[in-house]
Design brief:
The complex is a heterotrimer.
Chain A lengths: L22 E12 L2 E12 L2 E6 L6 H7 L10 E9 L2 E2 L7 H5 L2 E4 L11 H11 L5 H14 L3 H4 L12 H14 L4 E5 L7 H14 L4 E5 L3 H7 L2 E6 L2 E7 H6 L4 H10 L2
Parallel strand pairs in A: 3-8, 3-9, 6-7, 7-8
Antiparallel strand pairs in A: 1-2, 1-4, 4-5, 9-10
Chain B lengths: L1 H12 L3 H4 L5 H31 L1 H7 L1 H6 L3 E2 L6 E2 L2 H31 L2 H15 L3 H28 L15 H25 L3 H9 L4 H12 L1 H17 L2 H6 L20 H8 L9 H37 L3
Antiparallel strand pairs in B: 1-2
Chain C lengths: L7 H21 L4 H37 L5 H5 L13 H32 L2 H15 L3 H16 L4 H26 L2 H9 L4 H29 L3 H4 L19 H10 L3 H31 L10 H12 L7
The structure holds adenosine-5'-triphosphate (ATP) and magnesium ion.
């Protein structure tokens, strides 16, 4: 299935930014096998710069699997195999002559399950990636920590005990810490796998605001099971079903005029 | 199993009424008493052992005084001129163990990391091999050290070092003969490497995949991934592994006895790497059979044994508390 | 849904400032990937060097054992009495016999005690008491074996007035029983509670439950623990020095001194003769073959069949458990 629906003009939902979109990332014919099992089949998608794309689909359809391709996270999964190409800024992520680290530092990722470094302090968790990039100046680090924790809507809860080990946070707090950690490396692409699944409505709302806020300079790809969330904060939406990309396009179009019957059913079934 | 059949027969004979009446059947009582005795056995043994070692070494504490025995350096078993001090052997044990740990710990963690990084088809056989080598008896390591390793080590390492630095650096003074502190420490290190690396490997393999992914996501190299995700997470286990190795090194007898040169008295004070010496366990192994129970020579050796026991238990108990405390921090918090 | 922002101008002004600041920060990031990758390569080299450095002596030992020991092996060597040193006939018949006898006798003492203690820890004792005993078992396991030998000397040799197999077996059983106890406990813990509940519902007594249901289920893992503890005591030398003493005769009585392979190897190493050295390698080869055979056998026999319980394999698993154990009662219950 080769439905590469590509929005051409980067019409932002609030109409504030109407220049032509450039593609930050392009996935071409990506397939992923786990052993013999084909989890993602021949998916092609383009992700415009300065936009939010939502990946939706029923559980187990391969959203996480596809998202991990965009960061070469499958390198570490024994038995998995990725085919196809993923271009980021015109270079191939899977080019074996370039170490993936060059790309990974441009791509931040928030995983489906919160995975902060448990024994490190909150502060150290946030700056871990920054320090890898050679920034040591403590004033800058402090600034980054505050900024990122604010964006992740965690600052108010932890500002007084930044030295506390991350494991002592609640699940939702850990998830927001992971968001802050991903933001701290100042990525150009942000991959978020159900970032709000463990959050209460207020935190969810704040995270959505952050996502919208950041969309003016980042390329954000977010997996979500929450249709309203996709509508609220994404510009484009892609619908996957058992490993296939069924339909993709502008969020408004996909939700209001789905071209595919499956999409219509899925969207209606849970929407409204 | 035969036993349990009997128990069942007996129960049937009683028709099971006894159990219902709330009075435990005889077999059950015996079972409880028996297993409880087995459980308490270890406590009894420890108590009796400490008592025995204490009372049998009493004459030496009386003769030399506790401080005198522990800080003394004489070792003279000649009748009427008896004088015993354990300091050289205590130092010998501590120093050989420390050197062995310094060598073995980085190497072992290096091996464990190597086994993790390389493809499974190389890593797994290597893991098995390491486990097998842990089972090789220490007397065999000693034999190899004495007849093989010592010769090469003396000619290729000790002599050149001694010739170059023997006069200027005290560590390399002495006579490089291959039967000395350094060669004993190296054999010790070789012996404890399998122990430490096997445990470190298991502990590091237990680090969740998500942790490693988090590090890679931030753009880590493999080495940075270890620093960010693996070492902090497995710290308690790695310390446990190290202390397990340290315990082995402190208590190890045969290989050390065969390689340390076995000097006694003040001559056993570890003065340089190339100086023969003696450890607590090796002096016991060397002299125990010849010691006459009538003189205070045997109480002196038993006193050394008591000190060795206390040092070993201390190391273990400290380890236990460090590891428990570190883990409590982690476990108490995993509530989500 | 795409609501228009009422405070758009101010918000976007603030946003612009933040965007600019982030760009500045991003500019501070060093392009250091190359040097970091170099560090990574160097560390990989160091790690590989570690692995090779540590593996070399181990292969060397095994190789030397075969090269040095094979020439000594023949039927006479394995079964004969040791002749006069230097006369060209040094045999290890009594030593092999002694090793087998002493392993058997210490197993007879150590295994029942160990299993009993394991059952106590897992099924009988109160959790507080069990925790204390577990702690002392772990401490006891790390007591140097030569100290256990000293204790056996004081408690048995001095009591009876002479060296004997009994004393040696007692010393080795002290090494054995905590290992068996902890292995038993770990295996019992893995038996699902539902088995016990079902058995209780049938009206079985505690004893019957423990022996019939639980031990039968955990049998395989238990056997692994026992075999590994046997391989451990088979190579022990130090505690035998002051208990069985050594002898050049075949077995006569449990109440008399006896020889054992590790002890004989040590004695050989002290002799300045060439044939003693050859015999030492031969004896070492025999000992190592016996011990490794137990290990390899355990691994292939039990792991191939997916033995009950975690990595019912090698010492490493056992030691790791120990590290975990000494960590003390991790929410297993
Ligand atoms: N490591 C793995 N090994 C083997 N199969 C896997 C692995 N990870 C995922 N799968 C399989 O691949 C398919 C897609 O999984 P994936 O995690 O991508 O789903 P998902 O769309 O993210 O679902 P959810 O919404 O529940 O998170 C599933 O059928 C799953 O069983
Ligand atoms: Mg998923």
């Amino acid at each position: 299935m080769m439905s590469t629906t590509v929005p051409v003009s980067g019409a932002r939902s609030d109409g504030s930014d109407d220049k032509r979109a450039r593609y930050k990332m392009v996935a071409e014919n990506v397939s992923v096998h786990y052993g013999d099992y084909l989890a993602v089949r021949n998916v092609s998608l383009k992700f415009p710069e300065n936009s939010v794309t939502a990946l939706i689909g029923p559980s187990g359809c391969g959203k996480t699997t596809f998202l991990r391709c965009l960061n070469r996270m499958h390198d570490m999964t024994p038995g998995s195999r990725v085919e196809g190409r993923v271009m980021i800024d015109e270079t191939d992520l899977y080019d074996s002559s370039i170490d993936p680290i060059y790309h990974r530092r441009k791509v931040g990722m928030v995983f489906q399950k919160p995975n902060p470094f448990p024994t490190m302090s909150i502060y150290d968790n946030v700056v871990a990636g920054v320090k890898l990039n050679g920034v040591r100046d403590s004033e800058i680090l402090n600034e980054i920590v505050e900024d990122c924790l604010k964006m992740a809507y965690l600052w108010d809860e932890v500002r007084d005990d930044l030295k506390k080990p991350a494991i002592e946070l609640s699940g939702g707090q850990q998830q927001r810490l992971c968001i802050a950690r991903a933001l701290a490396i100042q990525p150009e692409v942000l991959l978020m796998d159900e970032p709000a699944s463990a959050l209460d409505p207020i935190a969810t709302q704040k995270i959505e605001e952050t996502i919208k806020d950041l969309s003016s300079e980042y390329c954000i790809i977010i997996v979500t099971h929450n249709m309203q969330q996709a509508v609220r904060c994404s510009d484009y939406t892609a619908f996957m079903y058992v490993g296939d990309l069924v339909e993709s396009g502008k969020t408004y179009d996909l939700f209001h005029n789905p071209k595919n019957e499956l999409t219509a059913k899925y969207v209606e079934g849970q929407f409204g | 199993m035969i036993h349990s059949g009997l128990l069942l027969l007996q129960r049937d004979h009683l028709g099971g009424r006894v159990a219902k009446a709330g009075r435990p059947p005889l077999a059950d009582k015996l079972f409880k008493v028996g297993t409880t005795l087995a459980g308490v056995y270890v406590l009894a043994i420890i108590a009796i052992m400490v008592m025995h070692l204490g009372s049998e070494s009493w004459p030496i504490w009386e003769e030399e005084g506790v401080a005198g025995f522990i800080t003394g350096t004489d070792w003279n078993a000649v009748e009427d001129r008896e004088s015993f001090g354990a300091l050289p052997y205590i130092l010998g044990t501590l120093i050989t163990s420390a050197i062995a740990m310094t060598i073995a710990l980085p190497l072992s963690i290096g091996i464990a990391m190597f086994v993790m990084i390389v493809p499974k088809r190389i890593g797994q056989p290597m893991g098995y091999l390491i486990e097998l080598l842990e089972a090789v008896p220490s007397v065999v390591y000693g034999l190899w050290g004495l007849f093989v390793f010592r010769i090469y080590f003396r000619d290729l390492v000790e002599k050149p070092l001694h010739d170059a630095f023997g006069d200027s650096i005290f560590l390399f003074s002495g006579t490089p003969f291959g039967l000395d502190v350094l060669s004993a420490s190296i054999i010790l290190a070789i012996m404890i490497i399998p122990t430490i690396s096997a445990v470190s490997r298991e502990v590091m393999l237990a680090v969740p995949h998500q942790q490693k992914e988090a590090a890679y996501m931030l753009g880590s190299t493999t080495w940075e991934m270890f620093k960010l995700a693996v070492f902090p997470y497995s710290k308690a286990g790695l310390i446990g592994a190290a202390i397990l190795g340290l315990g082995r090194a402190i208590g190890e007898t045969m290989a050390v006895t065969m390689l340390i040169g076995n000097t006694i008295g003040a001559a056993a004070m570890p003065q340089s790497l190339f100086h023969p010496s003696q450890t607590m366990s090796s002096i016991i192994a060397n002299e125990f059979i010849e010691a006459s129970p009538a003189s205070i020579h045997m109480p002196a050796l038993i006193g050394v044994g008591l000190v060795l026991l206390l040092v070993a238990m201390l190391v273990n108990i400290i380890a236990h508390y460090i590891v428990t405390r570190m883990l409590r921090v982690r476990e108490g918090a995993i509530r989500n | 849904m795409s609501g228009t922002d009422s405070s758009a101008p101010t918000r976007s002004a603030g946003r612009d400032a933040r965007v600019a600041r982030r760009a500045e920060i991003r500019a501070m990031f060093k392009s250091n990937v190359k040097s970091r990758l170099t560090v990574d390569r160097v560390m990989l080299g160091v790690i590989t060097a570690c692995a090779i450095t540590a593996i070399i002596p181990l292969f060397w030992i095994l190789g030397q054992l075969v090269v040095g020991g094979l020439p000594a092996l023949n039927w006479e060597f394995l079964t004969g009495e040791p002749g006069a040193v230097g006369a060209g006939s040094i045999n290890v018949g009594p030593a092999i016999q002694g090793t087998i006898i002493i392993i058997g006798l210490s197993s007879l003492i150590g295994i029942p005690l160990g299993i009993g203690a394991g059952i106590y820890l897992s099924e009988v004792g109160s959790s507080r008491m069990a925790k204390q005993i577990r702690f002392f078992l772990d401490v006891f396991m790390e007591i140097p074996s030569i100290v256990l030998g000293l204790f056996a000397f004081l408690a048995i040799v001095l009591l009876l007035g002479h060296f004997s197999i009994w004393a040696g077996a007692f010393a080795l059983s002290l090494i054995m029983f905590p290992i068996v106890a902890r292995a038993t406990e770990e295996q019992l813990k893995m038996v699902p509670w539902t088995y016990r509940e079902a058995a209780t519902a049938l009206g079985l007594t505690n004893a019957a439950i423990a022996f019939r249901i639980v031990l039968a289920t955990a049998k395989r893992g238990l056997l692994t623990g026992i075999l590994l503890s046997i391989s451990r005591i088979g190579g022990e030398t130090a505690p035998l020095i002051m208990t069985i003493l050594g002898s050049s005769q075949f077995f006569s009585s449990l109440d008399a001194p006896m020889d054992a392979l590790p002890l004989r190897i040590w004695r050989f190493s002290l002799l300045p003769y060439e044939d003693a050295r050859l015999a030492g390698w031969g004896a070492a080869l025999v000992l190592v073959v016996i011990i490794l055979a137990i290990h390899v056998g355990v691994r292939y026999y039990f792991q191939g069949r997916g033995g009950s319980g975690s990595g019912s394999g090698g010492l490493a698993a056992r030691n790791t458990q120990k590290v975990n154990w000494s960590i003390g009662g991790r929410q297993n219950r």
